[in-house]
């Protein structure tokens, strides 16, 4: 630290004397004005200072190891992959440190590494792994090569003026220009899509173009390649079509037009939105710095700012992204992409003081003008709590392809959050999980989404890539908390079919604190079956925490087998019904994910209610379901047919109905009580629900009720056909008349 | 808080005016001198203040609910059980608050609750549950009744002087005296043992005797009942014999003489030692306060002080007790018993400044003279780090019944700790796990002990009591990291047999930083089989963290099937051998714990080394074992024959040898690397060990070696028969001569 302080002092003086000399670089992310201010204010701004210190530690440690630019060989997780990834991260940071500290050693390090790349690059063919639809030269896939250039163009910008003209010429001729060409003209199937891969490609080409002042590259980044000869049925490694529907345009503006909904929701889901955000916000910052006349942050009604706000709201209590679609769990708003996003949105957006508390949790800021803004505002005490909220994020470029519903109720240790997926398929990384939901409380996941079957960058697991089980299990319907009909996944498990459809949001109302509700229909997942699910978070002083009420209706002209899984974690404590254990455990099927499940217990209820209580993280949870005495109540566990032990052994509770035309599933889920392992006290370890009932179920109306142990009783009536707010409804239930306006009516009926 | 501050000020003045009036109570735990000082210094001592505030919140909340003294009915976890437990906790705290704050409402509350008990008690027969070998009247077992009296005698002491003579007479006649009699003369099988139950009984009777100045009760507490008529084969609920070997004495001094080893180790293990500690230290404090002439803390060479130090050292990096024998995981030195213990040992012991950092983590102090000492010392900045250490704790009253070996190496995120169980059986709560070990790193358990099969105070799980699976699984040998011979548990699974024997410590040497070693033999677990295990923690700059080397030798005159389990957590990443998966999963046996296991994969190595790498808590772990190509390498998982889902589904790796006379198992276990879910970087994800080899294995010597990927190689030679330090040894291995003194010789042989 003391070393740092000394040069900070030095820097301040040097800065004052040197800032008058106008130079053209840095201009991309760091600006000359920004550098001057950072130098001047660094030692007053703790979070900026610690971010610099962190960068210094990282860069110094790598500099000590010496420069290593190995000939590309390995897949993700392997040595050459990791080395090249570290190289671009360290060059970017070293470039910034050169600007901030003016210590030449950093510039020398970046230059020498770049020259090593410039020496090797012309000798490289495609990466030898030959596993990608669009191979890179440095990495097995062009996507990673684009990452490299997005970061490295920042490093180049930082030492541009310091380099000799000859060095610049060599780097541009042997490295940057051919690199940008390989990403674009040589790889149209990678570059000319509307896809997060292409966004990285566009940003990479655009950012190096801005640094080099190369208008051709800038245009190519903004508008794509003029021609590409991509075939209509060409697909990527994830099975996604290269050319989606759309207006045929490509380039950065096409990404902005098509990849986000008007609400800033990204159809692949938050895990990929996080990944995609970095090139969006960084390239946008670069455009704003170099070409302010584009007004990039105003584009599409401030879309980029909205996208970041949306992304931050798609996190649980710990800041972890909801792992819908292909998503590795554990990724959070602490990621470097979100550091950039939050800083950039704060600086170029409305200076939302809530963002400062996210930035504080991130514990670091960008080393640029935007990070400076954030660090100054934190220092000035402007921080307020970041308030997450209930929201219904429309999906699709026009906002017409379904929605992702988020309901939040309760505060502090009573917080409960629900995510309901009524969106479109989510492209190649989408799962077959129409109308699925996941439930969170203040400890994290309660009824989880499995996430993806992948160990990113862990080489032992298929080089860190998607595992076979991602397709055979994680994507399948039965792995989710949603209805399985006739033992098959939605759309028969076809992504191409799924891509054609989306669910239809029916009701979203988060205005009433007592009951927040989200409801949607799905008409295409199973031809001939109409699915309609309504989920409500109910807050009432008689319950410790908000309850989840789940009403799932399926109707059809022919008999089907309906099955509703609830995935959970931890240890079963009790059931209110008897069950049998199979003598041996075997796979429950041979396709659609059932091949990965084993039945551990099966029973039937002697009443119309089945209750399950379980225990995890020293908390208690219960589900109480209205069932028929014929319904099979199954406890199952994942992990069958898993020769590489790729899957977790997670439990689930299935309600399986005998073949019938229509089915209605009604459940109340409670998070309740806690256990203290030190005092060994168990508080509120039992469910409060004494009864769940169905009062009416017709084409027009469904009315369900539930009761607590003190015999308080609540009723929810749903209008199944007409969700309009103005519609007047009237219904007689058990001799009593109920009249209301709108899609639902919630009554405390003690 | 503001309310508190006001009365603290009031209190200071009142204290000054009232302290001159000498009264006889409180004198048990709180003393009059202590009360005066606490009142005077409270608002200068944050941790004392917050402890008072915590007590105020707890007591006020309970006072608001009103007094409830229900007729006893429920088992542990049920309402009346929990209510009576809360009652004694709240009375004790309210009594103390009356003394500290002088607010009469607390005394009124205690008095009224005591009078309710005095009204009910004479009407009670034995608790209706009828499940204990020694039923209480308030609780299902006398043990809990004794808990009640240990706490309540403190409450009574605090309001003694404030009560009218008539009230005192009523309480003593209808409640305390008959209560003490029920615990003792009415329940000799509970009271007159050498056992933690009896310690509670002795302390309860003694503490109320001290408050009431009843010499008969005090003598009964110190020396037990004169006659008890307990039959020689009478057993308790856990299958433990009521009368153990010993000198036939009973009472508190007999507990001190027999329950602890000279090193302060308690034969049942740390979980029960923690539980047992409270009556020991509290009664000792009471004796010291009321009868200082006894010099109780000097008894047996300062045994009680040693016992607390030992207990604190029997914790992992998070302060969790090593869960050997029957122990619920999660119990830690944050428990109230350890708060008392630490405070009392600090105050009456040598004022060890390391204890202050434990007290600070506990975040609370006792509201008595000892807590005051700790709070003052913390305030004065006397705290130093509490340094845990390697130690070999002798077991048995005379220290002659085996030992528990603890090795610790590495610091910070490199910390590794090993616990090897070479003790006696541990009485009724003991497990059949001779020479077993568990391994910890800075994240907690790596190769775990299962702990007990019990959910303490969780009513849904058999009323919170020990589950059937505690006997059929948790106690069995195969549930532990130790050798199973011929598919049976040690001592055929008989506690009575196990109680007769102990393992024989062979070597313990923690003096060398490079290699710390613990070795023991077991001659009785399997008649005719000699087991000899040596475990070493090896610290070397070529490895990220200290390694574990495990050398397990079994010798016999006849052929046996030898099997060595390693229990782990998390997800398998890779093996270096091929395996087959069974089509269906079924129990692996029908007894000795195998009925609860299912085989998930079985293979054989084509070389003499088998390697397994797994992943948990974002850390990597590997085991590399010297095996024969005939050895069956099994991946198994617990949870079979578990109709109530009482067991966790934990994985284990088994090395199973074909029948043979002698067997040698040699393994190296590495904790290595880490994964970051936010950056998605995997560091050091691969094992560093390239080879494990056996060079010599004779009656006299065993020499094993291991090698890293850089071809550094290490060798450990063990003298199998003579462990004496002075002994000279000489051995030729592959043509090279090795000479050394003592039980082992460790060589870096590159």
TrEMBL record, chains A, B:
Asked if the record carries the keyword Membrane, the reply is: no
For this protein, the record's Gene3D superfamilies field holds: 2.70.98.70, Chondroitin AC/alginate lyase (1.50.10.100)
Q: Where in the cell is it found?
A: Periplasm
Q: What is its main location?
A: periplasm
Extract the signal peptide range. 1-20
* Keywords from the named record: Lyase, Periplasm, Signal
What is this protein called in UniProt?
Heparinase II/III family protein
């Amino acid at each position: 630290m003391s070393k740092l302080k000394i040069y900070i002092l030095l820097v301040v003086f040097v800065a004052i004397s040197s800032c008058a000399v106008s130079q053209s670089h840095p201009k991309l992310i760091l600006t000359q004005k920004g550098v001057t201010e950072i130098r001047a204010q660094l030692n007053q701004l703790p979070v900026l200072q610690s971010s610099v210190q962190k960068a210094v530690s990282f860069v110094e440690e790598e500099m000590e190891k010496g420069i290593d630019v190995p000939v590309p060989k390995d897949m993700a997780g392997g040595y050459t992959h990791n080395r090249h990834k570290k190289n671009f991260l360290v060059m970017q940071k070293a470039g910034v440190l050169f600007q901030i500290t003016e210590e030449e050693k950093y510039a020398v390090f970046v230059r020498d590494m770049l020259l090593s790349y410039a020496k090797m690059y012309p000798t490289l063919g495609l990466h030898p792994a030959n596993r990608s639809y669009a191979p890179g030269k440095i990495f097995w896939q062009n996507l990673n090569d684009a990452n490299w250039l997005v970061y490295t163009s920042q490093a180049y910008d930082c030492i541009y003026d310091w380099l000799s003209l000859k060095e610049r010429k060599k780097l541009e001729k042997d490295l940057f220009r051919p690199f940008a060409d390989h990403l674009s003209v040589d790889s149209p199937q990678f570059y000319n899509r509307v896809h997060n891969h292409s966004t990285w490609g566009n940003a990479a080409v655009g950012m190096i173009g801005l640094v080099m002042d190369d208008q051709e590259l800038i245009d190519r980044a903004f508008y794509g390649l003029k021609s590409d000869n991509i075939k209509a049925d060409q697909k990527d490694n994830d099975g996604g079509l290269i050319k989606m529907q759309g207006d045929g345009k490509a380039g950065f503006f096409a990404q902005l037009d098509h990849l986000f909904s008007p609400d800033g929701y990204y159809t692949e889901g938050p895990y990929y939105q996080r990944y995609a955000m970095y090139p969006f916000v960084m390239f946008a910052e670069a455009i704003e710095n170099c070409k302010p006349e584009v007004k990039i942050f105003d584009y599409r009604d401030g879309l980029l700012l909205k996208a970041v706000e949306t992304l931050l709201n798609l996190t649980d209590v710990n800041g972890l992204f909801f792992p819908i679609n292909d998503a590795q769990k554990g990724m959070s708003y602490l990621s470097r992409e979100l550091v950039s996003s939050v800083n950039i949105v704060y600086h170029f957006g409305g200076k939302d003081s809530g963002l400062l508390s996210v930035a504080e949790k991130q514990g670091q800021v960008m080393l640029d003008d935007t990070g400076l803004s954030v660090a100054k505002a934190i220092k000035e005490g402007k921080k307020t709590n970041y308030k997450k909220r209930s929201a219904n994020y429309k999906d699709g470029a026009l906002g017409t392809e379904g929605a992702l519903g988020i309901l939040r109720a309760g505060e502090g240790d009573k917080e409960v959050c629900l995510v309901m997926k009524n969106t479109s398929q989510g492209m190649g990384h989408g799962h077959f999980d129409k109308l699925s939901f996941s439930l969170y409380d203040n400890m994290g996941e309660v009824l989880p989404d499995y996430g993806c079957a992948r160990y990113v960058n862990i080489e032992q697991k298929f080089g860190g890539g998607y595992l076979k089980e991602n397709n055979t299990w994680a994507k399948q319907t039965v792995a989710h908390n949603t209805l399985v009909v006739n033992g098959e996944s939605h759309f028969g498990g076809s992504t191409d079919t799924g891509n054609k459809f989306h669910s239809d949001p029916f009701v979203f109302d988060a205005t009433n604190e007592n009951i927040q509700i989200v409801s949607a229909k799905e008409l295409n997942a199973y031809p001939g079956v109409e699915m309609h699910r309504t989920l409500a978070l109910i807050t009432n002083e008689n319950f410790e925490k908000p309850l989840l009420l789940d009403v799932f209706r399926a109707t059809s002209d022919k008999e089907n087998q309906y099955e509703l899984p609830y995935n959970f974690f931890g240890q079963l404590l009790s059931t209110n019904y008897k069950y049998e254990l199979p003598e041996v455990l075997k796979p429950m099927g041979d396709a659609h994910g059932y091949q990965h499940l084993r039945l551990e217990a099966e029973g039937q209820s002697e009443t119309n209610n089945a209750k399950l209580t379980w225990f995890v993280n020293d908390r208690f949870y219960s589900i109480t379901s209205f069932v028929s005495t014929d319904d099979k109540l199954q406890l199952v566990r994942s992990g069958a047919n898993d020769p590489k032990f790729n899957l977790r052994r997670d439990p689930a509770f299935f309600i399986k109905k005998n073949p019938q035309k229509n089915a209605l599933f009604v459940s109340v889920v409670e998070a309740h009580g806690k256990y203290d392992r030190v005092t060994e006290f168990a508080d509120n370890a039992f469910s409060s629900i004494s009864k769940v009932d169905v009062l009416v179920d017709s084409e027009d109306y469904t009315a369900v009720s539930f009761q607590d142990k003190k015999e308080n009783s609540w009723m929810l009536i749903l209008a199944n056909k007409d969700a309009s707010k103005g519609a007047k409804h009237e219904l007689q239930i058990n001799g009593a008349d109920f009249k209301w306006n709108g899609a639902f009516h919630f009554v405390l009926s003690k």
